[in-house]
Amino acid sequence: MAAKSKSKSTPVETALVLPRHADIKETEVSSVELVDTHTHVASTFEAYRAKYPEGAHTTIKSFVKALLMSDETNKLSAVVDVWCEAPLKAEWLETVDSLGELKEEGLSYSFVVGAHPHEAKEYTDELEETFKKAHAHPLCVGWGEIGLDYHYDNSPREIQQAVLRRQLRTALASGLGKAITIHTREADDDIYTILTEELPKEQRIHVHCFTDSLEVAVKLLDHFPNLYIGITGVITYSSNLNTSQVVRHLGEKATPSSPSALRLVLETDAPYMLPSTMGPPSSFGMTSKQKLPFAHSAVLPWTAAFVAKVLNEREMPEGEAPWTTEDVLRVARENARKVYGV
């Protein structure tokens, strides 16, 4: 029996298993692979346990299998988990090894590790050694999320800059050739300067949850041919116009039959960034006053559908079909392979 929720505003636990998105409902599941390139699995599980203290799932592995691997939902093929706390959570190794076992059941789990800019003031030699060991783990596909956040300034800006440079140099010095996951917010000039000074042009980069200016996006895309823009559910928010502007720019030279210019990947940043376009609560077994208490990787198709809508604002070349949700999911899936090898 599903556990009851803590309050009337929290839906029953079964509502967390999302129905397959309408745009991919009639398609064979195997033809559309969903890849979440940026999610915080441990934090999402913590959010679940906080909302459902008597919930059915007492382990992260059970939680992931139920929400992301069910045949009834938007089944995930791969996730890139993010460990960016300082200090690194004690359970990281046990968790990644446990979730890595899910590959035998159809879910490819990998992770990135690094110090978030909010945590820059906590960066130490000891922490760096821990990150270096984690970075060498066979399931680790990158260093991140690292970068600059001038919106909150939880760490002084000069410390953020110094720690970003240090982490970039450490990642390159490892010789492992893994990707870099970048967090940037309201730091356009400094992020461009630091990345172009510290990284080789061919470096594989994922600029996560992009919400900054089109100008800096174009500069980064032009300088780094293997840089991809991360799109989360925040693209659906009326308060954020920048992300759609970047998608329009990427779509100017891309079509469903020739999509290589569409240099984006899809991500959830779960448990954050729930898309605002999920539809009426009743379609998820909720009352009109309820909403999903957190995002998880199975919300990806709603973000993809919005991206397709934005791409279709331009007049398509003669003979070219409009973008579909499935088209966007396929392009994003291939780009995830290019960035992270997943």
TrEMBL record:
One of the Pfam families matching this protein, by short name: TatD_DNase
Coiled-coil regions listed in the entry: none
CDD domains associated with the record: TatD_DNAse
Signal peptide extent: none
Keyword vocabulary terms for this entry: Hydrolase
Protein name in UniProt: Hydrolase
Annotated GO MF terms: hydrolase activity, acting on ester bonds
Species name: Leucosporidium creatinivorum
